[in-house]
C-alpha cells in the first residue's frame, strides 16, 4: 500500500505543468530581471554624471586659481575719504568703514597699483578763504601725482590752481578726474600746496580714488 502511494506521487510529479502558468512564471522572471538591470544601469549613469560634474568643477576652480595667480586681481578699485595734509604736502586718508580697497594697496597716502591697465583717477577737496583778512592773495594748488617704482621720482597727472582773495569767506571745491595708463607697482597720491591751513575737515568733503576700466 505504501509502494502504491509513492508511485502515485512520482506520477503526479511527472505530469507536465500548465503551459500558461509556465509562461507567466517566465514573464515575471524576465520583468524582475529587467527592473533590476535598469536600476543598476541608472545607478552607474548617475555615478558617472556626478563624477564628470565634480571633475569639471575642480578643473574650473584650478583654471580660475591659476589665472588669479598669473594675472593678479581682475579689477582694481579704491575709494578713500577724510584726508589731512602732512608736512610733505601729501594728503593722508582715513581708513574706516566707508573705505573701499580691492586689488589696490594703500600706504602713507598712496594707492599702489597691483595690475597694469587704464584707470579713472579722481580727487576732490574742499577749502575756504576764511581767515585771509589783511593778507595778500594766495594760491591753492591741488595735484594728483604718480610715483614710479622708486618713490623719489614722481610726476603730475592732474592739477588745479585757484587764487584766494581776502574778505570773501567763500567755500570752494576742487575736483580732478581723468583716465590714465598705470603700471604695476606705481603709486598715485594727492598733494596740496598752500601756505595756509584752509582745508575743511569734514570727512565727506574730501575723497580720492581710482578704478580700473
Automatic annotation (TrEMBL):
Its main location: membrane. The keyword Kinase does not apply. The chain crosses the membrane at residues 32-55. InterPro entries: TNF_CS, TNF_dom, Tumour_necrosis_fac-like_dom. Keywords: Cytokine, Membrane, Transmembrane, Transmembrane helix. Residues 76-213 form the THD domain. It comes from the Eukaryota. GO terms for biological process: immune response. The keyword Transmembrane applies. Belongs to the tumor necrosis factor family. This is THD domain-containing protein. It comes from Oreochromis aureus. The lineage of its organism: Eukaryota, Metazoa, Chordata, Craniata, Vertebrata. The gene is LOC116334155.
Amino acid at each position: 500500500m505504501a509502494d502504491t502511494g509513492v508511485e502515485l506521487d512520482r506520477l503526479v510529479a511527472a505530469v507536465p505543468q500548465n503551459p500558461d502558468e509556465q509562461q507567466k512564471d517566465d514573464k515575471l522572471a524576465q520583468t524582475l530581471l529587467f527592473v533590476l538591470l535598469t536600476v543598476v544601469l541608472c545607478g552607474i549613469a548617475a555615478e558617472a554624471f556626478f563624477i564628470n560634474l565634480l571633475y569639471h568643477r575642480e578643473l574650473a576652480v584650478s583654471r580660475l586659481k591659476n589665472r588669479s595667480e598669473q594675472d593678479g586681481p581682475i579689477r582694481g578699485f579704491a575709494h578713500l575719504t577724510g584726508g589731512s595734509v602732512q608736512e610733505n604736502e601729501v594728503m593722508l586718508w582715513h581708513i574706516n568703514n566707508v573705505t573701499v580697497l580691492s586689488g589696490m594697496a594703500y600706504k602713507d597716502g598712496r594707492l599702489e597699483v597691483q595690475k597694469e591697465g587704464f584707470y579713472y583717477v579722481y580727487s576732490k577737496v574742499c577749502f575756504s578763504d576764511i581767515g585771509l583778512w589783511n593778507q595778500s592773495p594766495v594760491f591753492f594748488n591741488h595735484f594728483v601725482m604718480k610715483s614710479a617704482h622708486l618713490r623719489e621720482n614722481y610726476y603730475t597727472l592732474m592739477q588745479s590752481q585757484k587764487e584766494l582773495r581776502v574778505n570773501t569767506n567763500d567755500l570752494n571745491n576742487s575736483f580732478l578726474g581723468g583716465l590714465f595708463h598705470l603700471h604695476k607697482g606705481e603709486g598715485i597720491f594727492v598733494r596740496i600746496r598752500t601756505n595756509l591751513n584752509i582745508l575743511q575737515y569734514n570727512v565727506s568733503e574730501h575723497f580720492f580714488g581710482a578704478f580700473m576700466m
